[in-house]
Specification:
Blueprint (H helix, E strand, L loop, with lengths): L1 E5 L10 E7 L7 H9 L3 H7 L11 E5 L6 E8 L6 H18 L4 E5 L10 H15 L17 E5 L3 H29 L7 H11 L3 E5 L1 H6 L3 H7 L7 E7 L6 E13 L8 H4 L7 H16 L3 E12 L11 E3 L5 E3 L7 H14 L4 E6 L3 H7 L4 E5 L2 H13 L4 E3 L17 E2 L7 H10 L7 E5 L5 E2 L9 E2 L4 H9 L1
Parallel strand pairs: 1-6, 2-4, 2-5, 5-6, 9-10, 9-13, 12-16, 13-17, 14-15
Antiparallel strand pairs: 3-4, 7-8, 8-10, 11-12, 14-17, 18-19
Helix pairs in contact: 3-4, 4-5, 5-10, 8-11, 10-15, 13-15
The chain binds ligand BES, manganese (II) ion and zinc ion (ZN).
Ligand BES binds next to helix 12.
């Protein structure tokens, strides 16, 4: 579906559906909704509001067929002005697109620049949110379904006649398209079955689709680089591990940043096998990897003045005769020894080496993103992702940027005492210390593999994969993190 913005009156653009909106409680529509109302004989104020009692409650959509011209007007409810947010604009936009495709007879829809009129929000951010929502609203993972539902909607046009708003919104649409497509690409990767998506195919995907120089290291090369911790996790699988390094290097970059994604293409738990209900969705354990690969492609399109390295240690965590075992002691890349307390705490073991590799690149900042702990999911549910790190200022900044990108992160503590649980009798550290305080303990574990580079850790275990649709209408892979990473790096 094509999303674009035109500097025309909404009434002058040919479309099957016209989308306008109402704040809750408004009896006489203002702005462009008012203009549309007048153009159609006050049908919105006299009929939809006065007779049909449409109140503009957030998320409601009134579908008004226009008998004489065969078009429809959708009036979307924005809710109370005081409670209105950019995220709501995005979610509403997704809903509109889904509705158009469900009705099945709309090919072209024209929308007002929701939020930038009477509600008074920033035109650029509104446009980006509308665009991202619209693209998200087209998403379906139906490649294995024999009865695929074709999306009928081909064009989503935003109409804005005001010169100044139009210019800002144009920039928002551009970023929205790049970000929206990055999100859908990551969803495809995450939703893909691990039967087809394993380290080698993930690496092939990155080479073909990251949009930047991509180097893939095989098992022997990984060994040569001293990444024994990463290798140990992958040694139980029939699929060879792959280490993926993507680089975006503009001239005169103002800073260097590394993003590291957990890339467990399937997490069976290893010999500490997961129970069936927990294992069921563990193809999502490469959501961090999908996020960084997809982000790189967006970065290659947005071309920010920042050098970006993306790193993925991709492997499968399986039980077998060759699998790593509880009680094993592994010497990680940094030289630190790890006693394996539980083979299901594998993500941090692979990240130990990936983070060390990232730090050796001499970057100014490292961000890792990982479906790391069930404990984080227990703490924050599916509503927010966890964030930790060794630099409070950067964490604060990231949370703020993420909020603007429409994603929620909540800081988890990294009190030293959480590390007590990781003390080992025979090695420098154990990989886990039990379930209590698990998200923080995992954060402390990771911190031991970074010397002094500012570092942020994102735990997306609870938010990466949903069994119920969220406010955006997205079920299964959400591609959480992609929007925040792109905005944090490129804005
Ligand atoms: N991949 C899981 C974490 C996870 C759980 C992601 C639920 C998404 C949803 C991770 O590798 C894991 O198994 N963690 C263990 C750690 C424990 C053994 C200390 C966990 O959280 O149970
Ligand atoms: Mn695990
Ligand atoms: Zn895992």
């Amino acid at each position: 579906m094509l999303v674009k913005i035109e500097k025309k009156s909404i009434l002058d653009i040919e479309a099957d559906v016209i989308v306008v909106s109402l704040l809750e409680g408004v009896k006489t529509p203002g702005g462009v909704t008012g203009i549309v109302d007048k153009a159609f004989n006050n049908i919105i104020s006299n009929f939809v509001i006065a007779k049909e009692k449409f109140e503009g409650k957030y998320g409601s959509i009134y579908q008004l067929p226009l008998v004489d011209c065969g078009k429809k007007i959708f009036i979307t409810g924005l809710g109370k002005q005081s409670e209105f947010t950019y995220t709501k604009i995005r979610d509403l936009s997704a809903k509109v697109v889904r509705l158009c495709n469900k009705e099945g007879n709309a090919e072209k829809v024209v929308s007002i620049l929701q939020g930038a009129g009477v509600a008074g929000l920033c035109p650029q951010r509104c446009a980006q949110m509308i665009t991202e929502g619209a693209i998200s609203g087209t998403y379906a993972f139906d490649k294995y379904k024999s009865d695929k539902k074709e999306n009928t909607l081909k064009e989503f046009i935003i109409a804005e006649i005001d010169e100044e708003k139009f210019k800002k919104a144009e920039e928002g649409v551009k970023k929205g398209i790049i970000t929206g497509e990055a999100v859908n690409r990551a969803r495809n990767l995450i939703n893909e079955s691990s039967q087809y998506l394993y380290p080698e195919t993930l690496a092939e995907y990155a080479v073909a689709n990251s949009g930047v120089k991509t180097t893939v290291y095989n098992k022997d090369q990984i060994k040569e680089m001293g990444m024994n911790a990463f290798l140990a996790v992958g040694q139980g699988s029939v699929h060879e591990p792959k280490f993926i390094h993507m680089e975006y290097k503009p001239e005169n970059a103002k800073k260097k940043i590394a993003i590291v994604g957990k890339g467990i293409t399937f997490d069976a738990g290893g010999l500490d096998l997961k129970p069936p209900s927990s294992m069921l969705t563990m193809r999502d354990d490469m959501s961090g990897a999908a996020a960084v690969i997809s982000t790189m492609k967006a970065i290659s399109e947005l071309k920010p003045n920042v050098e970006v390295h993306a790193v993925v240690a991709a492997c499968e965590n399986m039980p077998s005769g060759s699998a790593y075992k509880p009680g094993d002691v592994i010497i990680a890349k940094t030289g630190r020894s790890i006693e394996i307390d539980n083979t299901d705490a594998e993500g941090r073991v692979t990240l130990a080496d990936a983070l060390a590799y990232a730090e050796e690149l001499g970057v100014d900042e490292i961000i890792d993103i990982a479906t790391l702990t069930g404990a984080c999911m227990v703490a924050l549910g599916t509503v927010a992702s966890g964030i930790m790190g060794n630099n409070d200022e950067k964490i604060k900044e990231f949370i703020e940027v993420a909020n603007k990108a429409g994603e929620r992160f909540w800081q988890m503590p990294m009190f030293e005492e959480y590390g007590d649980l990781l003390k080992s009798d025979i090695a420098d550290t154990k990989n886990t210390g039990g379930r209590n305080g698990g998200a923080s303990a995992a954060g402390i574990f990771l911190s031991k593999f970074i010397k002094n580079t500012p570092w942020i850790h994102l735990d997306i275990a609870g938010t990466a994969f949903l069994d119920k649709a969220n406010s955006e209408g997205i079920k299964n892979a959400t591609a959480v993190g992609v929007r925040s990473l792109i905005k944090y790096i490129a804005d």
